[in-house]
Hints:
There is one protein chain. By secondary structure, this protein is an alpha/beta fold. The chain has 3 domains: 10-170, Rossmann fold, CATH 3.40.50.980; 194-417, ANL, N-terminal domain (Rossmann fold); 421-527, GMP Synthetase, Chain A, domain 3 (2-Layer Sandwich). The strands form 7 sheets. It has an 8-stranded mixed sheet. Strands 4-3-5-6-9 form a 5-stranded parallel sheet, sandwiched between helices. Strands 18-19-21-22 form a 4-stranded antiparallel sheet. Helix 2 packs across helix 3. The longest helix has 17 residues, at 39-55. It starts with 12 loop residues before the first helix and ends in a 10-residue tail after the last strand.
Amino acid sequence: xxxxxYALTDRTVGHILADKARKNxxxxxxxxxxxxxxxEELHVRTNRLANGFADLGIRKGERVGLLLDxxxxxxxxxxxxGKIGAVAVPINSAARGDLLRYFVQKARCVAVVVEAxxxxxxxxxxxxxxxxxxxxVRGKGAAVRSFRxxxxxxxxxxxxxxxxxxxxxxxxxxxxxVLFTSGTTGPSKGVLAAQAQGWGTAEIFARHTSLSRDDILxxxxxxxxxxxxxxxxxTAIWTDAEVALSRRFSASRFWDEIRAAGATxxxxxxxxxTIIWNQPERPDDADNPVRLCFTVPTPADFIQKFESRFxxxxxxxxxxxxNFPIVMYLPGDPLDKMASMGRxxxxxxxxxxxxxxxxxxxxxxxxxVFRPADPWRVMLGYDQMAEATVSNNRNFWFHxxxxxxxxxxxxxxxxxxxxxxxxxxxxxxxxxxxxVLVRQHPDIDDVAAIAVPSExxxxxxxxxxxxxxxxxxxxxxxIRFCDGRMPYYMVPRYVDFVDEFPLTPTEKxxxxxxxxxxxxxxxxxxxxxxxxxxxxx
Length: 537
């Protein structure tokens, strides 16, 4: 179905929400539990919030930290701040201690909106957060104490701003978000994103996946992450569609929530798709309204079984907080390319290069780099990190930090993060593919694969495993499970167990911390070779 093609200069929160309210009026934009927000309400409520923040002294360009639960208020605040040109800094609601202090300080937040039950985390560092001049508390217990001598404001006061359109000149090129990266290989970097970037991502998803005003986009992913913000919420707005928001991912409630919402699309990141698959089969698995599932690259045989069981079609894409979907696999594409990242769709020029940025021929593994076909679809830069910004954009190409290869037909295939790469006895091993295979063990909750030093040069494969509660797992049992399910060279040599993984703010595993642990403890963990286990060939 056709939708508006907003000119680049019109890609601001204020312009698009006003236009969508005029067009869609009382049509539902978002449902959450027992509440509903129409397009008209979205525009009016974000106006009120925007003016409420302005009344409290928040000005264009100033940063506001958001330590909030996954509710509609978080999305509305992000949009409202965009209407006055302020910069939203959404923070993982699990952040605490030094990590929370790092986010607030690094982003130079002048204000923080915080859930009442999370506010003690902020008070603990009030003397360190010298840039913060305003704290707004959402929920019960608001305005009960001071922050460095200033009484905290209650969120209900912010909601009482004027309905009028804010009188602020906001341009498409103005900063809108500081989005912290996953930090899987080191400390998180703040991605500074312009107003136009998220709308550019929405336009690409809408154009290539044939979304329309009749679609309902379900997300249980956090609104501090680009997937729920841009890929779901902004895309729904762009296409006049609807968002069904859930507080969090629950495997046992997932399909019930999908059916209750009438959802036609959802995204499954990381281990989500395997967790959904591992739920007990039900006779009504295929009786659901979903037509599209968005995933990261996944082995073809697995995703085909997933499609068949749940009667849907899969879309694979590759993007980052720093950019936009640069390659995609879409329904109707060749089945033998299903496990790929996809191919360019005219939105970017994509290459595989060596360490000197020289393009590699088809079949050779190198770094995935690209440059956009249109401006303002890539971040403004890493916030206050000029050296990292320049490094990632050297030689006029954006460097993703991911290893991949291109086949003769122009399809791109993911291997892993450069810093996560494993090369064992001449074979390149995809940690992502290995982890997907190991997660299919019924007693494994999650797994992380890393490279550790080998006596024979190159690497050996080690996995850290988190067992399901009550499971009686052994390292030898895991090796036996892997043998025959993957190439012999991929079967882990070392196995260790964890009660919990060190996680990033976006719930990804911090592998650099696991590598540090492995180097210190390798001589004491299970070693397949020392145990004398012989593998199938």
